[in-house]
């Protein structure tokens, strides 16, 4: 891949943009307020990044990172995502998104909701269970895949080729991937599960920062996914 589209320029979106640019990938980044509001972000990222509309970011990326609140899904240019591999970082936070009955009763998951909203996209859940400063600190793009230096991120999706594309991007920015199964299994690394955030934090007091980032290997993350329970 040569170009990564990013829809959402918050902490995760900006961090992924930085990792991608550092890996030699061009970035087209958008937010809900318009390209002109991203001048400082793209200036910091450098010449491999440019600001765009959400539609441009969705159509011009070889892959697209979608990192917006669930409540903002209804505002997306849905058709622009058709045919794209969409890396969904979203989580359900009722205090932010409002109550969503289908998520509250467990009949679907956050990324399945994204896939339903973007029916033409091939959705892979990733980047949702790691603090953005840990994500920046743990990237090891120079280390070989499977090495003791690399940390592992969980992915889930219903399209094997899309998961292969997500794995390739993770490898390029310095992470290994652990396949957690279909999108329906994405609940195993959503908020309030053992795999959500905590494995990557080595702080003694729960005060997360880049300095507290802790490497997570496949066995540790696999155990955390297996320990998840649903109420």
Task: Describe this protein with a few key phrases.
8-stranded mixed β-sheet; single chain; about 230 residues; 8 strands; alpha/beta; globular
Q: In a nutshell, what does this entry contain?
A:
The chain is an alpha/beta fold and 231 residues long. The protein has nine helices and eight strands. It starts with a strand and ends in a 5-residue tail after the last helix.
The residue fraction in helices comes out at 25-40%
Rounded Rg: 16 Å
Give the overall form.
Answer: globular
Low-pLDDT segments: none
Beta-strand content bin: 15-25%
How many strands?
8
Count of helical regions: 9
Distance between the termini: 40 Å
Major sheet: order of its strands? 3-2-1-4-5-6-7-8
User: If you average the pLDDT, what whole number results?
Assistant: 97
Secondary-structure class: alpha/beta
- Major pleated sheet: 8 strands, mixed
Encode the helix/strand succession as letters.
Answer: EHEHEHEEHHHEHEHEH
């Amino acid at each position: 891949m040569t170009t990564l589209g990013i829809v959402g320029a918050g902490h995760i979106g900006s961090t992924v943009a930085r990792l991608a640019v550092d890996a030699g990938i061009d970035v087209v980044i958008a937010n809900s307020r318009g390209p002109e509001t991203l001048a400082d972000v793209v200036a910091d990222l450098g010449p491999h990044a440019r600001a765009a509309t959400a539609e441009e970011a969705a159509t011009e990326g070889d892959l697209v990172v979608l990192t917006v609140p669930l409540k903002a899904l209804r505002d997306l240019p849905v058709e622009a995502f058709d045919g794209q591999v969409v890396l969904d970082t979203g989580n359900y936070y009722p205090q932010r998104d409002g109550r969503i009955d289908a998520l509250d009763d467990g009949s679907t998951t956050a990324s399945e909701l994204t896939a339903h909203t973007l029916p033409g996209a091939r959705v892979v859940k990733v980047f949702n269970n790691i603090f953005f400063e840990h994500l920046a600190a743990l990237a090891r793009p120079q280390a070989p895949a499977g090495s003791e230096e690399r940390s592992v991120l969980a992915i889930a999706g219903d399209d094997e080729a899309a998961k292969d594309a997500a794995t390739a991007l993770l490898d390029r920015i310095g992470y290994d991937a652990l396949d957690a199964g279909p999108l329906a299994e994405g609940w195993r690394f959503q908020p309030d599960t053992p795999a959500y955030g905590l494995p990557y934090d080595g702080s003694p007091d729960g005060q997360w920062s880049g300095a507290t980032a802790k490497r997570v290997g496949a066995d540790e993350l696999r155990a955390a996914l297996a320990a998840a329970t649903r109420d």
